């Protein structure tokens, strides 16, 4: 299939693609950017394929429609990578459906760093957990850095954003056991967390932790011991530590 060549910053399609770097326009267009051929290997159904002119012969997308070749200076305006492979994919948002949120879940309360979120998504995918609820105000799942650091796992999880009232209504209706990670005096060691039939494990903001609204609703609070001088662990690391112990406990 023939590719369309984009030569100018005034091109409407170029302007659309550049706007997708902004969360507001991603939500409006229901589409996001993903870079690198590895992403394509994991999801071969992009809405658009964008190739850098000087590198277009590296890949064979001859069987795909909706291919665009950007002149190098235009592509360089869009890419978020220093050593780009020369290909960007545009994917459509999946349709959110609360009914897809099944079984045990992780909840993120106002996590702000996109790299942390991508790492968390990758970790949850690695342990086989399929559902992630994000409190509104948490960084956008489709932020380019989040997409990149998820290493393709973004295609394997169900995501749903909720405010606190929506969250509490959902957890109560579905009878979830709420386990919050907190540096409180009454928190128990994470290795002793008590799992029930349906569990919601909560991790908080990098600086402020979990909101009191959620802590007050929690059935149990758990802590990862700190043996050195650091005040706390990075939230991405904390998710890995707690959730791999969760898998061990589930198997008992």
From TrEMBL:
One of its GO terms (biological process) is methylation. The keyword Transferase applies. Pfam families: MRM3-like_sub_bind (PF22435), SpoU_methylase (PF00588). The lineage of its organism: Bacteria, Fusobacteriati, Fusobacteriota, Fusobacteriia, Fusobacteriales. Residues 105-244 form the tRNA/rRNA methyltransferase SpoU type domain. Residues 12-88 form the MRM3-like substrate binding domain. It comes from Haliovirga abyssi. Keywords: Methyltransferase, Transferase. GO terms for molecular function: RNA binding; RNA methyltransferase activity. Belongs to the class IV-like SAM-binding methyltransferase superfamily. RNA methyltransferase TrmH family. Gene3D superfamilies: 3.30.1330.30, 3.40.1280.10. This is RNA methyltransferase. InterPro entries: Alpha/beta_knot_MTases, MRM3-like_sub_bind, Ribosomal_eL30-like_sf, rRNA_Methyltransferase, SpoU_MeTrfase, tRNA_m1G_MTases_N.
């Amino acid at each position: 299939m023939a590719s369309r060549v984009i030569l100018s910053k005034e091109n409407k399609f170029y302007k659309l693609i550049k706007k997708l770097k902004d969360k507001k326009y991603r939500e409006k267009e229901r589409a996001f950017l993903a870079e690198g051929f590895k992403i394509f290997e994991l999801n071969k159904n992009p809405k658009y394929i964008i190739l850098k002119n000087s590198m277009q012969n590296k890949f064979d997308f001859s069987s795909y429609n909706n291919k665009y070749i950007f002149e190098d200076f235009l592509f360089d305006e869009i890419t978020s990578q220093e050593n780009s492979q020369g290909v960007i994919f545009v994917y459509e948002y999946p349709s959110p459906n609360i009914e897809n949120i099944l079984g045990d879940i992780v909840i993120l309360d106002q996590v702000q760093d996109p790299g942390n979120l991508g790492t968390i998504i990758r970790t949850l995918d690695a342990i086989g957990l399929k559902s992630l609820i994000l409190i509104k105000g948490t960084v956008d799942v489709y932020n380019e850095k989040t997409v990149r650091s998820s290493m393709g796992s973004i295609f394997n999880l169900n995501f749903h954003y909720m405010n606190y009232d929506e969250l509490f209504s959902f957890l109560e209706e579905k009878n979830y056991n709420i386990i919050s990670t907190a540096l409180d005096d009454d928190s128990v060691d994470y290795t002793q967390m008590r799992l029930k039939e349906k569990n919601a494990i909560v991790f908080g903001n990098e600086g402020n932790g979990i909101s009191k609204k959620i802590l007050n609703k929690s059935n149990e609070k758990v802590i990862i011991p700190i043996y050195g001088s650091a005040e706390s662990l990075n939230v991405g690391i904390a998710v890995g530590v707690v959730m791999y112990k969760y898998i061990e406990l589930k198997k008992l």
